[in-house]
Design a protein that fits this description.
337 residues; mainly beta; eight-stranded antiparallel sheet; globular
């Protein structure tokens, strides 16, 4: 697998050709520590079992952070009217991107993905840059289309979770309301009440009328797999690892991506290759209706009826640019639990 090294004054890491995925990355803090905050699929470097088919693309190499255009599952019911299909989170999440810079600046990597002719997406451009003098990475995503369309779009930073339940504190910026997934993310393992509104991560409604959950401190106890969407958020989320004494900060343009999905993955997925061993938190800036696909996101839905955009209107010749940043800072002393 091709991966390009990224190096700057306060960090180093890799960008994969497949999916243009950023990770792992070690951020070097002022106190001399190196912190690698990103999750990597635990099977990414394992030999395949003899009775399993080869994993492809994102499922084979999932790690760190990557762009999702379109975001979510395949186009969904009614997709025959679109005349195209795509895997989860779009073709670009599974295919090899081309590096387009000259490689002379070790602190920057520029990549391009040219989409198949079957859909409205024309190309994606991605820039990843380490910020000199800071433990911070700045990214830019440019989306171009060949036909008028509305697409759900998202970014997919995914953090590794500490082993101790509750040892990562989640601190979103201000948001108007949050919802649990309308269905069930993983049968028997989704602990959030479907499609129920809540105002605080510390008081999320539990599935089955069982009271409330505290999603502000992760991981949860037990094997769970849930999605919550923070709607009309201000473009800021932080996550503090209380045991290791560092804070991850994510900032983006909420005018383009007005929600944030929290993917709470506590070893809830049973089937191989998940095999109840994946612990991660996705902090995903999005313009989408959960993972419901192009058709559902472009149509009227439970969020769009409340004034929360769930797809982006795109036109040929009018590129969409999304800038965002990820940084790690030390916590001294480690934050109290």
């Amino acid at each position: 697998m091709n991966a390009w090294p990224l190096r700057w004054s306060h960090g180093s890491g890799f960008v994969e050709a497949v999916g243009a995925m950023l990770g792992p990355v070690e951020f070097r803090l002022p106190d001399g520590r190196g912190v690698q905050p990103f999750a990597v699929f635990p099977w990414a470097d394992e030999p395949l079992p003899a009775d399993e088919q080869a994993l492809q693309g994102l499922m084979a190499r999932g790690r760190g952070e990557w762009p999702c255009v379109p975001f979510g599952l395949g186009p969904g019911a009614g997709a025959e009217t679109l005349g195209w299909d795509h895997p989860i989170h779009g073709e670009a999440a599974h295919a090899a991107w081309q590096r387009v810079d000259d490689g002379r600046d070790a602190s920057r990597i520029d990549l391009r993905f040219d989409a198949p002719q079957t859909g409205p997406l024309e190309s994606l451009e991605r820039s990843v840059r380490g910020v000199d003098g800071r433990a911070q990475v700045e990214c830019r995503l440019v989306v171009r289309v060949r036909a008028d369309c509305r697409l759900p779009i998202g970014l997919h930073p995914t953090l590794r979770l500490p082993a101790r339940p509750g040892a990562m504190r989640i601190e979103p910026g201000s948001f108007r309301f949050a919802l649990g997934h309308p269905g069930e993310v993983e049968p028997g393992a989704d602990v959030l009440a479907p499609a129920q509104e809540f105002q605080s991560l510390a008081a999320a409604p539990r599935r089955g009328g069982g009271g409330e959950l505290d999603l502000s401190h992760l991981p949860l106890a037990g094997n769970t797999e849930s999605l919550a969407q923070l709607c009309a958020i201000d473009g800021r989320v932080a996550a503090t690892n209380l045991d290791e004494g560092w804070r991850f900060e994510l900032g983006w343009d909420a005018a383009v991506l007005p929600s944030c999905l929290l993917w709470v993955s506590n070893a809830g997925r049973r089937d191989w290759p998940w095999s109840r061993r994946h612990y991660a938190l996705g902090i995903e800036p999005v313009c989408t209706y959960f993972d419901q696909g192009v058709v559902a996101c472009a149509a009227e839905n439970a969020l769009s009826r409340r004034g929360v955009a769930t797809s982006v209107a795109l036109q040929p010749g009018v590129p969409l640019q999304i800038d965002y940043r990820m940084a790690v800072t030390p916590i001294h002393p480690p934050a109290p639990t």
